[in-house]
TrEMBL record:
It comes from Nonomuraea composti. InterPro entries: Chondroitin_lyas, Hepar_II_III_C. It is found in: Cell envelope. This is Heparinase II/III-like C-terminal domain-containing protein. Residues 308-461 form the Heparinase II/III-like C-terminal domain. Pfam families: Hepar_II_III_C. Signal peptide: none annotated.
Amino acid sequence: MREIREEAERARSTPAPELTFTLWRRFADTGDRLAHERAYFERRRRLAALALAPGHTPDPALDDLLWSVCDEYTWVLPAHEPDDRPLDTFVDLFAAETAHALAEIVTLPGPRIDARVRERVRAEVDRRVLRPLYAGAPPMWWERSATNWAAVCAGATGMAALALDSPHLPELLSRLRGAIEAFLAGTGADGACLEGPDYWSYGFGYFVYFAEALRERTGEDLLDDPHVREMAAYPARVDLGGGARPAFADAQGRGAYPAGLLSRLAGRLGVPVPEPGVPSFHDDACYRWAHLSRTLRWFREVPGRRAEPCSYLPDAAIVVARAGTTAFAAKGGHNDEPHNHLDLGHFVLHAHGRTVLDDLGAPEYTRDYFREGRYRVPHASAEWHSVPLIDGAAQLPGRERRAEVLAYEEKGGNVTFALDLTAAYAGPHRFTRTFHWRPGTLEIVDDFGLAAPDALVEELFVSRVRPVTGLDTVTWGPVELRVPPGWRARAEERRVRGHDGAEESVHRVRLAARVPPGAHRFRFTVRT
């Protein structure tokens, strides 16, 4: 609440940025998304702070900002401008989120908002977001999507219609149910979010918010479902400890889950959840009304409760093992997953509060990243994941580029996880990778059936920790790798842009050898 008051005062005393044509066209001209989005989300930040700040007297700053949001050319982001229909008939993630925020803000109790502003908001929400979904328009692509888009667009639109008590509510809910069903069907029985932990917060979070709003109105309980319970347990199952998680797909290796969401899931479903920590107004860089308002309403001091020491998600082919201050995670799957990276057989190793062998996670989103240039970005490329190059060849994209799980065994906290990764690569080579985890020690056995007897194999190991290479060891802080005889280690560094656009240095160790066919072992030890 202190942060909200501070933000509200800043919003009253400084002008909000404008969404100019120059900002709008920048994505089409250069592929840059951040310039427009920074101004867009700064306006949502101010809107949330002004609406959530305590007070019962009229607030001209809130009236003005609501009116200004209604004046925006569109609530759709430039990156989401459709090719198949007029812009003003399309609902994207952020148009739906804006509609939900405005609808609930103008229905808050009290006289703080001018009646004329309320009426304009209702009209704009109906025109921009509700009407395209109740007026018989052709389906939008996300209505059949198995990704976060379906849950966020349908959930936010549904909550806006519920808040405004739209006369078209029955037909809207009927149409939105299809998108919700598509979202749920896109997750395997193990409940894993293939888009990564951050997109779990986003997609599954909006599903939960909508489900609870619908339950309050109708009594129908969409959370009373075994599959939903499995989805709710996902964050605890991939938790590495201390707020860390594997940054598989377009995720971040560290970050806050919405505290209100975790509280509600722990209370309603009794599932294990990571420790929520102290919520902040700034946990979500997009300042989504759904997360902020539900955290204020739902957050309770619930103790974090881990899943079992070892988690295996068979549909996603993800394994996570935890022991004290160390943990490891690895993944199979296929190379056409949502928010895909070329990362079959990739792993992370967490030690003493830091993910040492790491995943770069999500880069800055640009136009090319969601087109043909995706796999030229280091974060998504095979060359910047901890997987080998075989005779110079990297993994390739495509659903047929798939890992086959050969074995998973867990006993007393020790784990064996074996994958056949042959299909991930082109060419005649056979390749299997087996992980043997013993608390504090990770051994990787790579078995190559090579077409040539002396083919070049390059094992890549990625980190944000600068490595130190010796004659027969490589160390990354507390983690040591014994370099097998015949392999030569070389450290490389590269500057990349993170999801927020900031530059950082990342590191890669390249172990190279011309190897005979057969098994080659790489042992990582965590020093105490």
